[in-house]
Amino acid sequence: MEATEKQALAESLVAMGLLKPGGGFTATNLTGGVSCDVYKVAFPDAPPLVVKRALPKLRVTADWRAPPERSAAEVAWLRLAGRIDPTTAPEIAGEDHAHHMFAMRFLEPKDYPLWKAELRDGRIDVEFAALTGKKLARIHSETAGRPEIAARFDNGEQFFALRLDAYLLFTAGRHPDIAPKIEAVVDGIARARIALMQGDISPKNILVGKAGPVFLDAETACYGDPVFDLAFCVNHLLLKCVWHPEHRAKYLDSFTALNNAYLAGVTWEPRAATEARTAILLAMLLLARIDGKSPVEYITDEGDKAFVRDIARGFIVKGEESLDEIALVWRDKLDNR
């Protein structure tokens, strides 16, 4: 870490009341994110913290920018989720609005492994997937139809830049024949005011705690259509079947368990309506993680990309509305590769 970077971090820690002027600490860069600087900060006489700073330009090949004020939305979401269920979010230790930074409790990896790593290594707990769906649905249910929460999370500009434009509209530009279908879904999500979306529910942002999932990286939090969170998450369970096909049966079991547990917790509308919007959005996100601004880093083979692309396009053209049908087709296509 450069001296200027450490000095900026020290000034922010002082501003948050977490460090006395001139106090000692050590900081280690944590890897994995493209939208933030993330540090583990250790103190001589206090528990370690994680400090995040939102970046105005994301670390991807494409020119992808977003307002750094999104860090305030992340803090607000983590605090709200923690009030709904204290097991689902790390405790916030401090916030520095001026520099778009905040600090939260550091959770030891040995006690809170990353779900993405567990899935990658074949430690696939279907019950954990179901609990993730159940707890996510509870957050959505508790925030549905709440105008005061809608006003607090009126972050449409941030969500558009980080999700709708970067993932879906960028992908639409590369597939002009199905662009109108993608654009119609984007318009529906942009207009929706149903419940609070976290916006980045992904295995790389979920820790496996003893009481269930701990959700991280909520900088895209916005009041809108909660199916975005469900589709964004289960999308990865399908993609991991391509990454590690030897585990595909367990990935697909987790896909179904998470979906079913989530849909069982839907209280704000008929479950069939939630499922239909999730299914078509899921198809578009599958395509976006191949051809969008932020393709998944673990699918690099051109044959694998074509496999995902072709199936996703088929779902979009059909207008698929069934998550079970998506699972059946995905399983069949994998078995017959």
Mean pLDDT: 93
- Based on CA atoms alone, the radius of gyration comes out at 20 Å
| CATH homologous superfamily annotation of the largest domain | Aminoglycoside phosphotransferase (APH), C-terminal lobe
Sheet with the most strands, sense and barrel status = 5 strands, antiparallel
Assign the CATH topology of the largest domain: Aminoglycoside 3'-phosphotransferase, Chain: A, domain 2
> Could you say which structural class the secondary elements and strand pairing correspond to?
alpha+beta
Q: Note the total helix count.
A: 12
Can you walk through the features of this model?
The structure is a single chain. The chain has 337 residues and is an alpha+beta fold. The chain contains twelve helices and nine strands. It folds into two domains: 3-105, Phosphorylase Kinase, domain 1, CATH 3.30.200; 115-335, Aminoglycoside phosphotransferase (APH), C-terminal lobe (Aminoglycoside 3'-phosphotransferase, Chain: A, domain 2, Alpha-Beta Complex). The strands form three sheets. Strands 1-2-3-5-4 form a five-stranded antiparallel beta sheet, with helices on both faces. A two-stranded antiparallel sheet has the order 6-9. Helix 4 runs parallel beside helix 9 (248-264). It is globular, with a radius of gyration of 20 Å. The model has no long low-confidence stretch (mean pLDDT 93).
